[in-house]
Structure formats: structure tokens, C-alpha cells
Amino acid sequence: MRFWLWGLGGLLIWALHFLGLYGLASVADLATGRADGWRAAGLGFSLACLLATALYAVMLARRLRRASNAPVQVFALGLGLTGGLVAAIGVVFQSLPLLLPV
Amino acid sequence: MNGDPGLDPEIYERFPTKGRRPRDELKTLEAVWCGPTKPWEWITAINNNFVGVYYVGAAMLFFVLAGVLALLMRTQLALPMTGFLAQETYNQIFTMHGTVMMFLFAVPAVEALGVLLLPQMLGARDLPFPRLSAYAFWAYLVGGLSFFCSLFFGLAPNGGWFMYPPLTGTTYSPGINADFWLLGIGFIEISAIAGAIEIIVGVLKTRAPGMTLDKLPIFAWAMLIFACMIVIAFPSVILSTLLLELERALGWPFFDAAKGGDPLLWQHLFWFFGHPEVYIIFLPAAGAMSTIIPAVAQTRLVGHRLVVMAMLATGFISFGVWAHHMFTTGMPRLSINYFSAASAAVSVPAGVQVFAWIATLAAGKMRFNTPGLFAVGGLVIFVMGGLTGVMVAMVPFDWQAHDSYFIVAHLHYVLIGGMVFPLFAAIYYWLPMSSRRPLSERWGKWIFWLMFIGHNVTFMPMHLSGLMGMPRRVYTYLPDRGWELPNLISTFGSFLFGLAVMLWIIDMIRNFRPFGDKEAGNLFNGPGLEWLPAGFYSLRSIPVITSLYPVWEQKGLGRDVAAGRYLLPGAPRGERETIVTSPITAQPQYLLRMPRPSSWHVWGAVFTAGFFLILTVQAYVAAVVSGILAVYCLWEWAWRLDRPHRAATADVGGGVRLPTSVSGPMSHGWWAMVITLTVSGMVAVMAGFSYVFLWSRRPDLWRAPPDAASLLITLGLLAACALGAFGSVRSLKGARPSLAAALMLTASLAAAAAFAVEAGAWWSSGLRPDANSQGATVFALLAWQGVFAGIGLLMGLFALMRRLFGLVTPDRPATFELIGLFLGYTAAQGAASLLLVRLLPGGGA
Amino acid sequence: MVLDPAGPFAGPIETVAWVLFVMAGVVLALVLAALGVALFGPRPWRQRVGAERLVWVGGLAFPVVVLTGLLIYGLSTTAKLSAEPRPGEMRIRVTGEMWWWRVAYLDERGREVLQDANEIRIPVGRPVVLELESADVIHSFWAPRLGGKTDMIPGRRNFMRLQADAPGDYQGQCAEYCGGPHALMGLTVVALEPERFAAWRQMQAQEAKPVAAPQTAPLIERGRQVFDASGCGACHTIRGTDANGLAGPDLTHVGGRRTLGAGILPNNQGTLAGWIADSQGIKPGNRMPSYPVLSGRDLRAVAAYLDSLK
User: Does the pTM exceed 0.80?
Assistant: First the structure.
């Protein structure tokens, strides 16, 4: 189980980010609070996800250095790193609407 | 980091074994795996070498049928206001073209490729649940053909392949045409899920020893991700079709705005499935490209790890883009923008794969054979389609292009370039594995160029007509718009394409000779295990793998495998067997005994398809009879499962002994049940989403739930169910089988009682399912739970019967474990759904 | 037509379209060039292309840069094309029906003050807010030269802003499959100079006044009688007469419209007669039955009457 979590962690963070933003936006539509508050919440959440991805990448890199003799481990960690990169790109893209006027 | 069991890797050093194999070992193997001799044995065959060919054949049949429909459409649209097809006929034909292509061709075709190729490619003898894929195939064939025949009766659905309500509600579609679609899609959904279970368990648990995940062939990665996506995406369309059928048949208002429903709910549910669906279709084809291009260029795939990552990323991100089909619906801008961003992101992994293919071609030496031509041609067309995809990911442009012929152009470029061309490449590449003669290379080149040119001549002008204002799904158009010339050119191109397909059919008839003793062999010098010498038993012995490109890099592998110098070189127990290995490091775990051909799954498939189809024509009694017969067949099938072995362990070659059966999370049955429950869970999640969505649209319609007393009773009963199931398995392992059976039956009764109490409580509160959207969604969740309670009851009875017939022993708890899993899930699902509808929005006064 | 915008809600989209086309063309050329090198290029070139670095640069880095730029551009253009109604903007409610458009002009308080069908008249140079609804199934309002499309969904009201910068007729068509003759559900947006628009509004507000020269007056009068006797008023409204049906298009000023049948026939006495006699033949499945029972004389008379309702 942990193997898969390490290999897919970045993409899982992306999924959480997407669901979170979409959920926040849906709740914001229903609520009558200030729109700025919801935007700030979204941006904060995005930042948190990016930090989580970065942390995840750092931890992966450390494990990669340690596991340099087991091909499966190297493979999975490499997958995790590159997957994390693409996931981070997705998180940044998805945060852009919060930075630009709607 | 990996929890794999420790098989001493030094054991691998024993292989390949030396010395001669016993003389009749091969003969026994051949006898045990013999092909059909009598006529009906062709139907009861379950070997993937047969079912896979049937499956691909059926998919291509539907491709041709839907293609003929397309030619009819193009003939109608060649000129303005032709009267070639009546309006209603055209509307049925375009709906069927899309539906048959997406549901009866595209997904089954790539699934069929998996069924045919995966076992060989992984070094397994067959798929882990051979009767399941055979069942899936027959249900698909019987159901699909019957569904297609609705055209000949003028009863084909006519609401477009995505069937938006309210157009497809009873008010505006009063006939049974829409029901044909809704119920007809039902058995396709079952087929797809069954295939997904097969493929996930097959790829993760039946690989050749030593085929660690970093040596997993790229096509297997693609099929694995494909199958996982099916598990997450298909439940959404299963739910939406159920809901629309409930609305049509019983008046439960999910999409009817007058009673609180919302047409957009359908769109969310459908597209949450529909967009991943196109990536479900694309990924296996991309996996085929990633396999064929290295073979054609005779070099390793450049960026293998990046390509695996790209497929994983595609699998994930494709779930976040569904509402780009809804940019014009008036959704809030912020949400729309998220989907635009995710849609841009999802093109990144596709680009990674394209450049990996180009780099591979450059690193090797391209041979312009037919598979290579189709691969390169597909790449070019797919890139063009992907670029127009990036264009429509930008919201303002989509506001013009949506629902116009620009989108028709885009979707055909990505689907034909990303799936059809790779599929033809795959057919030309892998056919020599199954046929005595390959297809003609000379004809193949003609077919390729006709198809390539035909495709571009057909679909390139559609970008223009779309931008000139021509909407989709129009049976004709007026002459003063300037749309004539693009349409005429498109029609001409479509007949070129059709000619290519016809030539291919002729060449297939001329050359395709399957099921024989000899195959044409590895004509293109491919690197994968599927190219080793094989019979109906697949490989003579299951090799130890040390490379990602075994045929290229493991010298003498073919000779040693055929001589029986690896694992499981025969069938000493007189049974069909393969080896189950661990998911990450592919270490052998146990011996999997596989069934011989039988007929229960065939009849089960016929009656399953029959149930859905007869229900559509509203012959309710006959439908119920067919349904009961289907359940009976499935019971008989299940009854024959989980039978004792003669010995607890078995020698699989080289002195290696493996258990003959396991239970618990390592067993393939456990995995199949968990995957099935994940599918059910996703249906429940989407149903919960529907509840929340409709509540958020019309909170004024919601009334208070029944009081807390019934809640406590129901929760208590559900807890009893879970505890009973858990306790039952414990008792069985504690050598108390009668207690175990009693507890399991009690657990199932508790779940059924919980359902009855909850349903009764809501009914007594005065809520009615056809009254408004709260009633509809609450009772839909209840009905889903009721289905599980009913199946649970059957399972409780099954457990009791097994005990009564002496088939339940403490050393083999697998059946009870699986039933326990199911009942435990039922309890959890029941608790979650009842808490949802009671706590949100909460009790009123 | 998308590439021939006529107003500020279509202009930015056209620019976006050209930017996207150029982007797509450049990328396609690069991909084809790389492919060409891979297949046919000299060995040293192929060695450079045949490396994992190409996948990183061409497959990851380059697309990310391009997509980021496009996304920012696309998102800002979306923001510019806001559909939120601003105070003081003229509002027109368009309701999609199977298979025509019910048009109602609203006053400042949102009350319907003028009914029409299948044609929308707007003043040149000012943004107009369309309130889009549906009476039955999902339709979509699309006039490509004036802007993107917006769906009309039962149970919802969507807003769209339109503006034409030059006078003229702007064609449109329903863009969401609505069954039956969806292909023949067209519309016209007519943009008039502000003075002519005001004059038109004035005239439209009046009740039906058949414009008749002395020679044609008896024919027109006969037409009005046939219209009455045939029960047309059960579905159609002609203000100033007893006809007050709401199921079909308002005919008070039908003679002044550009087209008939929702944009599919030119409007003249011949087509009016033909439509009434056999609308099912022209637009199969539409909600108006054919009237083959009317004699040729009666048909001509009704056509003349309707044509006179300018």
C-alpha cells in the first residue's frame, strides 16, 4: 500500500487540490459571504497543496538516494518525482483562476 | 517499502533447468488445454486465445456497422436539403453511430486487445477469471446485436449519444427508443466492469516471476490504468442511466425541473464518466503505440519511465476536466475556469508520450511496414486533434466551437488518430501471433494511405464548417450558408475511408486463419513475451524474467521456455493452472487453478442480456423470468467455486513448492470482490453527490427526515450485520463452521431488516419518490441499498447451503471471507447513505 | 462567421481564435519537423532527437510554457466577456421552444412589454442583455458573428450580453440538439440604428393594423375571416383581435419579419401560404399542423392578411 502511495503521491495531491477547489467554489456559490474570503481560502489551499507536493518531492528524493540498488524502488520513486512534477503543474494551472479576475 | 512475501530470489537461479522433461508432459499439457472439437465447445470456450479473438472480432463488427451508419449520414449531408434520409431516421442513425462507436466498439475493442494479449505478454497461461471475461463477452455480443437491431424497427434511440434530458424524458421521448439506450447500455457497463476486474487482477497478480513493476510491459501499464479508470468512471454512467430510467418508468424527478430536478445533474454525472471514457479509450491504444513503435524501430522505448508517469497522470487528471463539455451551460465562471485549467494540464502528459514516440523513432530505424505506417499516421492525426483540443480548452473559443462541427472534427481527430489508427497498427502487428498467415503488407499500405487521406479529407473541412456556424446533429442544412462545399468534400473523404475498411475486411477474409496449430510468428521481431512459441496453453513453461524486452535481451529464452525448462512445464495435476505472483516484485505466491469450459456463464450472459432487453420492451413478466434465470446461472457458477484441492502444496518446477490455495487479502477472489465493492462505492458516492447537488438547487423543497428512533434502530441493525459478518469469518477460522454459517445468515437478515426499517420510516413520513427531488434522491439511495440487501440475503443463503452440503471447512475460508466483505460493505454503505440524508440539511422542527 | 465578428463579444473571441490557430500551426510544424528528422534525417540529427531530453523539453517544458501563456490569455479574455447584466442595459427574454424562439422585450422593471418570435431587434452600438430560458428541452442560442453560445436550460435563467457594432442581419441557429427538426431552428438578430430601432419599437407596440391598399382590402378582410374561422387564434396572438393563443409565435407584426418558420423560409405571401398548407412537409415534426383542407383562395387570402401585418 505504501509503495503505491509513494509512487502516486503527487497525483493524489493534485486530485485533492482539484476536489478541494471545486468543493470550495460550490460552497461559495451557495454561501452569501464575501467573495474575497472564498478566494483567499482557495489560494491558501493551493499554496498548501504546492508545499505538500514540494515536501513530498524532497522526501522522495531522499528515499531515492537510499534505495539506489533496488530497481523496483528506484522505478517507483522516479515515477513519484515526475508524477509530482506534472501534478504541481496542474496545481499551478488550477490556481491561476484565483489570481485573475473572474 | 514493499510488503511482498519473501521468496528467496536465489531460487530463480535454478532456472532454466537442465536435463530432459518427461516424455508425455507436453502431451498432457496440450490435452488439458485442448481447443474446441464439438460445435458447441466453440461457445463454451473460455481460453483467452479464443475469447480474445471473438471479442476483437465482435468489436470490429460494430466498428463496421457504425461506420456504415456514418456513410449514410455523410450521404444525407453531402448536399443541402437532400431527402435521402427522413428526419427521424437520421436522428436515430446519428445517435446510434455515436453510441455504437463509443460503447460497442471503442471500449470493447481495447478491452479485447487486453484479453487477447495480456496473458501471453505477462507470461501467464490465461486470465485469472476466464469465465468472467467469457461472460462479459457473450453479454456484450448478445446485448449489443439486439440493441443494434432496434434500428430496423425504428426503435433506435434518437436523443444523441449523450442523451440529455429533458429531451430524453417521457414527455419529449415517449417511445421506448430512449429505454433501449438506457437499458441497452446496462449490459455494456457490466461487461466493462467485468473486464476491468480481470485486467487489474491479471496485470498485478499473474505475471511471470521476476517481472517486477519496472519490467512490466508498457502495454500492461496502459491496461492497468485503463481498468482502474473504468472502476472509477463507469459507476457514474451506471447511476445516471439508472436514474433516468427511474424517472422515465416511475416518474422520480431527478432531471425534471418542475419537481425540483435539474437537467444539469445528468450532464455532471454523464460527463464525469464521459470524459474519462475517451481517455479510457485512448490509453490502451497509446500503450499499443508505445509497444509497436519500439518494435518497428527495433530499439527500446525512449523515456519509458516518463511514459508510464504520463499515462498515470492522464488517468488522474482526466477526471478533473468533465465540465469542459458544459462551458456554455451558465455554470459559475470560477468553476468553469478550474476546468479550463485542468483541461490544459491534461494535454501535458499526452505531449510527453508523443515526444517519447518521436524520440524512439529517431533512436532506432523506422521500417515502413504497415504497423509502422499506422502508428506514425495515428501520431500525426492525434497531434492535430490534441491541438484543437487545447483550443477548445480555452473557454471563449469553446463558446463558439462547442456543439458545432468544429467539435465533430476535433473528436474524430483525437479518436481516430488516438485509437483507430493505433488499433489497426495493433491488428497488423499482432495478427501473426494468432493467425497462420499475416495480413498482406502490400494491401496494408494501400489501406493505410486510403484511410489516412480519407480521414483528413473527411474531417479537416469540418473545422471550417463549424466556424461557419454549422451546428452538430443536424439532419440537413439550408443552401445559403456556404456549408455545401465543406460537406461535399467531407462526404467524398468518408467514402475513401469506407473503401479502406472494406479492403481491410477483404484482406482479413483472405488471410486471417486463427485457432490453428501454427502461427505466422514474430514477423516484426517484437521484444515481448507474447512472441515466444506458444500453444493454446500459451507458454509451455512460465519463464523467469530479467528484462523489460525479454525476447531481445534474454538469450535462448524461447528455446528454453518451449523445452519446459522454467516453471510449471506441464499439467501434472491434470488441471489448467497458472502462477499467482506478488504485485510489486512478482514473486510466486500460489498456484491458481483455472476452470475448464462450461456453459453456466454463457447462459448467464444470455439471460442477463435478455433481462435488460426484455425489460426495455416492457414485457415485465418475461423480463423477471429472464432475470431469475440469470441469477440461477450465476449461483450455479459460484457454487462450483472454492473447491478443495488434493494437496495443500504443489511442485511447480525446479523443486519450488507453492500453496494450492490461499485466502485473505492475497487471494485473487478477495481482490475481485474489493474491486467490485469499489465500483459499488463509487455508485453510492455519485448518488450522494446527486442528493447534495439537487438539495443545493432547491433547498426549499426539503422537509425534515423521520425521527431519530428509526435512525438508531437502523444503525443498530447495520452494526449487527457488520459484526455478524466479521464474527462469522472468525468462527470459521476457529473451526466452528455451523456457527459461522448461522452468523452469516443472520448478518444478511440484519442488513435486509435495516433496509426495511429505513424504507418504512421514510415512507411513513409521507415522502414519496415521485413527489419531488428529495423523494427521488432519498428513495434512489434506498433502492441502491435495497439491491445490496437483496444480494446480501442471497449470499447469506448461499453460505448456509454451502455449510449444509459440507463444503465449508476452517482451512478454506475464502467464500465466507468474500461474503463477509460484501456484507460489511453493505452495512457501511447503508450507514453512510442514511446518515447523509438525515444529517444534510438536518432535521427541521 | 466566427472569424468575421461584428461586435465586442465576438471580437475578442476571434482574436483568441487566431492566436490559437497560430499556436497550433507552429506546434504542429515543430512536431512534424521532429518527426521528419526522426524518420528521414541524417544520423547526427537523429541522435540528438532520439534522446530522453527531447521528451523533457518537447513533451514537458515547451508545452507547459505555451499552455501557461495561453491559459492566462484565455482566462483574462473570459473575464472580459462578462455576462453579468449592468444597470440600464436593455433586456430581452428569449425562450427556446421546440423549434422556435419566443422573444419578449422587457422594461426596466423586468416586465414583458412586447412579444415577438424568431427575430431579435437590437440597437446598434449598445450592449443588450438576453435572458435565456427554455419552455421544454435544452436549446442553445448562437449567433456566431455576435458572440459565443449560451444554453437555454429548463429551470434556469442564463444571461448573455450581445452587441452589434454595425447595422445588419446576423444569422443564428439553435446549437443544442433538441430533437426533431433541430436542424431547422434558425434565428435572426437584426441590428438597427438607434433612431430606426426606436421607431420600430414604437410601431411594434401598436396593435395589429393590416396595411391594405383599396384593391387588396377585400382579400385581406377575407383572410382575416379565414384566420378566425380556422381557429388559428387558439395558438397564435394578434393583438387587437380575438386571437390570443400563446402556444405558437406571436403574429401581430409577422409581415415585417425577415423569415418564416424560424429562419428557414423567406417571408412573402407565397411562403406564408406554403407554410400554412404544409408546414409538416417543410419542417417535419414541428408543432403546427398542416392545413391542406384550406382551399387555394383561402390560403392566398390568409397569406395576404398575415403579410399585411407589418
Answer: yes
